[in-house]
């Protein structure tokens, strides 16, 4: 069977960032203004007063301290509470394509490849900026890549599902070298006026080069030993934004057109599902857990990762065995596990094995077993 490697990764990190302190100050100002404006209605039981957010809760419940964002000013303005991004003409690159090419150039550099070596592009992310033309085809055009390109969305699992799709395509011969980009402007789908979730997400873009091992010139390659993806329907993470919103007479401000979740239920249901996926996957491949040198897990919640790491390894993982980037980046949907992989893999020795795993809405979960090559 054809051997496939990830030969380069890249991360584009936005320039602006928001600490929990800044975020809570903005939310609390918004909540106080809301309670003051609606004082009479609240007193007459017609509206419910908003409770205040706090930094300690956010860090203790999630492990998040900071998030990078594409626009800080709009998010932190209590009168606005969402990012403000410039409207661009159709002749200008879209924002997702622009961040994608920044991450892609880094991944190409690491892999020692030129755009002309690439023959397919997959944009895999939770939120696509438009229905069509595909962001991937725009990325292809901007980088000067021949071949074909398409977009796909499996929410937070988009990147691992894309790795499986790309590896299968390379194995079957439909492409030789594939660029995967995961542009995530999660601040655009987040309701910063909702105390239960206003702290969860951040923005970023990751990129990967996948290719046939015999074509690779990189000295920091990971062979894809195996992939395993699963899905199981759940309404506990949901976003009803879509092309029928107009036909269904939704208002753009309807709450269900942004990210919504039952966080507690997600936590309880997804932890066993993901632990079992990784355990089954390793068992399928006859790899023992004591052979696993690293777990690059989806970055949604530190305690979730602690539970999964402990269940998979059968003991509490050392920090270096299960690196988290959540404290700096927050949840960046499909990109989270790829950031962890990109930032914490250079130090691994030849033949070291690690598992890259993402999970999220759907539910969906993808596991990728990787081996470091020289
Ligand atoms: N500040 C202060 N208190 C807050 C708060 C905030 N920002 N947000 C919620 N609270 C309160 C709640 O109202 C609740 O109060 P109550 O006990 O009086 O009812 C209490 O804190 C606990 O809230 P809960 O939502 O149950 O917290 P939690 O411990 O479950 O943590 C999440 C919330 C979202 C961090 C956590 O459930 C989680 O990460 N789940 C997994 C989510 C996930 O992986 N999603 C995938 C997304 S892609």
What would you call the structural class? alpha+beta
Proportion of residues in helical segments: 25-40%
Main sheet properties: 9 strands, mixed
Oligomer: single chain
What ligand species are in this complex? coenzyme A
Order of helices and strands: EEHHHEHHEHEHEEEEEHEHHHEE
CATH architecture of the domain at 222-373: 3-Layer(aba) Sandwich
**Can you say what the CATH homologous superfamily of the domain at 222-373 is?**
Thiolase/Chalcone synthase
Q: Beta fraction of the residues?
A: 15-25%
Number of helices: 11
Which topology of the domain at 222-373 does CATH recognise?
Answer: Peroxisomal Thiolase, Chain A, domain 1
Kindly state the number of beta strands. Answer: 13
Shape: globular
Average pLDDT value? 97
Rg over CA atoms, rounded to whole Å, is 21 Å
Instruction: Pick out the low-confidence regions.
Output: none
CATH class of the domain at 222-373: Alpha Beta
Distance between the termini: 20 Å
How would you write the strand order of the largest sheet? 5-4-6-7-1-8-13-12-11
Quickly list its features.
13 strands; binds coenzyme A; 9-stranded mixed β-sheet; Peroxisomal Thiolase, Chain A, domain 1; 11 helices; 374 residues; two-stranded antiparallel sheet; globular
């Amino acid at each position: 069977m054809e051997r496939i490697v990830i030969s380069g990764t890249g991360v584009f990190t936005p320039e602006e960032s928001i600490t929990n302190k800044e975020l809570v100050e903005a939310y609390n100002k918004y909540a106080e203004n809301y309670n003051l404006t609606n004082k009479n209605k609240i007193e007459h039981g017609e509206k419910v007063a908003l409770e205040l957010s706090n930094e300690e809760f956010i860090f203790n419940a999630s492990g998040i301290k900071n998030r990078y964002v594409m626009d800080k000013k709009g998010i932190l303005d209590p009168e606005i509470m969402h990012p403000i991004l410039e409207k661009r003409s159709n002749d200008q690159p879209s924002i997702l394509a622009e961040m994608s090419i920044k991450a892609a150039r880094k991944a190409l550099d690491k892999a020692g490849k030129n755009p002309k070596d690439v023959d397919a592009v997959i944009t895999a992310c939770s939120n696509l900026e438009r229905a069509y033309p595909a962001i991937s085809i725009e990325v292809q055009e901007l980088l000067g890549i021949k071949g074909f390109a398409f977009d796909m969305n499996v929410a937070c699992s988009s990147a691992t599902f894309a790795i499986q799709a790309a590896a299968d395509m390379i194995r079957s011969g439909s492409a030789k070298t594939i660029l995967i980009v995961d542009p995530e402007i999660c601040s655009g789908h987040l309701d910063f006026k909702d105390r239960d979730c206003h702290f969860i997400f951040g923005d970023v873009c990751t990129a990967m080069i996948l290719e046939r091992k015999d074509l690779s010139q990189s000295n920091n390659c990971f062979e894809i030993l195996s992939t395993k993806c699963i899905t199981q329907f759940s309404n506990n993470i949901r976003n009803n934004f879509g092309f029928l919103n107009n036909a269904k007479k939704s208002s753009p401000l309807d709450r269900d057109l942004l990210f919504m979740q039952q966080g507690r239920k997600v936590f309880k249901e997804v932890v066993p599902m993901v632990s079992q996926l990784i355990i089954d996957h390793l068992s399928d491949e006859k790899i023992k857990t004591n052979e696993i040198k690293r777990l690059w897990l989806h970055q949604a919640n530190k305690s979730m990762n602690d539970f999964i790491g402990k269940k998979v390894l059968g003991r509490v993982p050392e920090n270096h065995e299960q690196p988290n980037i959540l404290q700096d980046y927050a949840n960046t949907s499909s990109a989270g596990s790829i950031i962890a992989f990109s930032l914490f893999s250079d130090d691994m020795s030849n033949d070291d094995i690690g598992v890259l795993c993402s999970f999220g809405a759907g539910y969906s979960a993808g596991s990728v077993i990787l081996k470091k090559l020289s």
